[in-house]
Amino acid sequence: MLKEAGWSAMDADGGASSAILGTFVAALGEVEIGEEMDCLCLAKSFDAGLRAVLRHTKATQGDKTMMDALFPAVEAFEQAASSGQTAEIAMNSAAAAAERGADATKQMIARYGRAKSLGERSLGHIDPGAASIALLFAAFGSALAQEGAARQIAPQFS
Questions:
Q1: CA-based angle 23:56:125, to the nearest 5?
Q2: What gap in Å lies between CA 65 and CA 76, rounded to an integer?
Q3: What pLDDT band is residue 155 in, cutting at 50, 70 and 90?
Q4: Are residues 95 and 137 in contact, defined by beta-carbon separation less than 8 angstroms?
Q5: Where residue 57 sits, what CATH number does that domain have?
Q6: pLDDT of residue 22
Q7: 72-76 long-range contacts, Cβ below 8 Å, gap at least 24?
Q8: How far apart, in whole angstroms, are the C-alpha atoms of residue 50 and residue 20?
Q9: Does some domain include residue 32?
Q10: How far apart are CA 68 and CA 111, in angstroms?
Q11: SS3 sequence, the chain?
Q12: How many structural domains comprise the chain?
């Protein structure tokens, strides 16, 4: 399902951010999981997604791109997972890190993407790709919270 969602994102438009975001999502579905996805499996999936994106871009943290939100989100999730946190707590940590990373792009000059041509005029504006990553991780967090609430309300159906 994640592979299909990733390919759909890549086909959505001709923009580079759709291709990169699609690559990330598609790679999430490539990690072998057992019968149930746990927090460490999710961490492996996010790491695989980040590595897949890195094969397609030279952008990294500090370039005012989605990477400024993606790197800290994946790192925060991995740290929380390796310390034994639940997936919901790890995702909340990742979402907060992604939001901080996106907010930090406001103080950066774009070095990649369309905003690169703006030079110093890109200062004071959050990178849209970084904002997209922050929204993606916030949505993942909301989905996990809803799943957790559903299990508490009706455990026999989850």
A1: 85
A2: 18
A3: very low
A4: yes
A5: 1.25.40.340
A6: 81
A7: 72/97, 72/98, 72/100, 72/101, 73/46, 73/97, 73/98, 73/101, 73/133, 73/134, 73/137, 74/46, 74/47, 74/49, 74/50
A8: 10
A9: no
A10: 12
A11: CHHHHHHHHHHHCCCHHHHHHHHHHHHHCCCCCCCCCCHHHHHHHHHHHHHHHHCCCCCCCCCCCCHHHHHHHHHHHHHHHHCCCCHHHHHHHHHHHHHHHHHHHHHCCCCCCHHHHHHHHHCCCCCHHHHHHHHHHHHHHHHHHHHHHHHHHCHHHC
A12: 1
Number of other residues whose CB lies within 10 A of the CB of residue 31: 17
Q: How far apart are CA 64 and CA 105, in angstroms?
A: 5
Extract the tokens encoding 13.
Answer: 């438009």
4 lies in a domain?
no
Give the orientation angle of helix 16-28 with respect to helix 39-54, to 10 degrees: 140
Residue 62: which pLDDT band, with cuts at 50, 70 and 90? very high
Q: Which two three-digit tokens encode residue 14?
A: 């001709």
**Domain span at 76:** 37-157
Instruction: Report yes or no on 71 lying in a domain.
Output: yes
